[in-house]
Amino acid sequence: MGVSYLAVGWNRQKKIYDWFIFAFCVLYLSTFIAITAISNPDYTFETALIRSTATLAILLLHVILSIGPLTRINKKFLPLLYNRRHLGVTMFTIALIHGSFSILQFHALGNVNPFVSLFTANTQYNSVSKFPFQALGFFALVIFFLMAITSHDFWLHTLSPKIWKTLHLFVYLAYFLVIMHVMLGVVQYETNPVLFVMVLAGAAALITLHLVAGTREVRKDNQLFKLKSEGFVYVCESRDVPDNCAKIFCIDKERIALFRFEDKLYAIHNVCKHQGGPLGEGQIIDGCITCPWHGYQYLPQNGQSPLPFKEKVNTYHVKVAGSQVWLNPQPLPEGTERPGAAIIIPDNQIIENVK
């Protein structure tokens, strides 16, 4: 978290991440162009560059869209999520190079304005084999452009998280336009089915990942809590909540993160104010609940971000009866102070821990 909006600061991890992306892109493009030059000497450099940037952009797009569900399935992928915006801007840059050279090669050599030519050179929208697929790629690029220029947190706060998140969900529309751009374009002119199979495999993998991650979330949301008493719901045993971590419960459509800190239990709303990250999948670091997505922090006892930040989330009543943990799913106003529910550790367990 930062006090003000400054130029992006690259720490060691970000530098390694970005250098890896840069090196991979350079290696991919140079290898693709070299193989093309060797296997087909008649190809021009411009054509090889157009094809290499196209395949690289599609590959990066699939990786970007896979990161979200992968982190829901396995937390080991979280480091990829921290810097996903960098990967997104890189993908847009590669796609922009592809689009620029395509317009230059196919629409800039005549007397008509290249952008006018893009939409008027082919108007056979009622044909599958001759559909003007380049227009689909153009509109996808516009969406990627809007996402790239609004990737900084300044725009997140200026537009509001809801509007910002809605805008960035258009990546799925852009992905559909890209797939149609490929299927109605280059795939129809290829005699080798490899590209067609790769695109279908990529789409199938993405759909499968999202379905698996979504199924897990639905299963968690539909968990039934039968024991209820005076508005409280029995959710688990105190030993089920690991130190400085949380368990997530969905009760009456409320997603609640139950954290254990210094042998006390605290409950806050599970959704981070930044980008809707799952707070319950984070940890308590330096006394603060830390969102696993981008490091936003909240105090466990009141759901408030430490000063000078002003983000707040709802808190909930928690009580411990013996070893049983009970939650009241009725949310308290954001930032409401609540004492932690003390965990009573049996004497025999203390002796065992000492031993």
From TrEMBL:
Cofactor list: [2Fe-2S] cluster
Membrane topology, as annotated: Multi-pass membrane protein
Pfam families according to UniProt: Ferric_reduct, Rieske
One Gene Ontology cellular component annotation held by this UniProt entry: membrane
Domain Rieske: 233-327
Protein location: Membrane
Keywords, sorted A to Z: 2Fe-2S, Iron, Iron-sulfur, Membrane, Metal-binding, Transmembrane, Transmembrane helix
Keyword Transmembrane: yes
Transmembrane segments annotated in the record for this chain: 19-38, 50-68, 89-109, 135-155, 167-187, 193-213
A molecular function GO annotation: metal ion binding
Listed PROSITE patterns: RIESKE (PS51296)
Xref: PANTHER family: FERREDOXIN-RELATED (PTHR21496), RIESKE DOMAIN-CONTAINING PROTEIN (PTHR21496:SF0)
Protein family membership: Belongs to the bacterial ring-hydroxylating dioxygenase ferredoxin component family.
Name the UniProt record assigns to this protein: (2Fe-2S)-binding protein
Organism: Niastella caeni
Lineage, opening ranks: Bacteria, Pseudomonadati, Bacteroidota, Chitinophagia, Chitinophagales
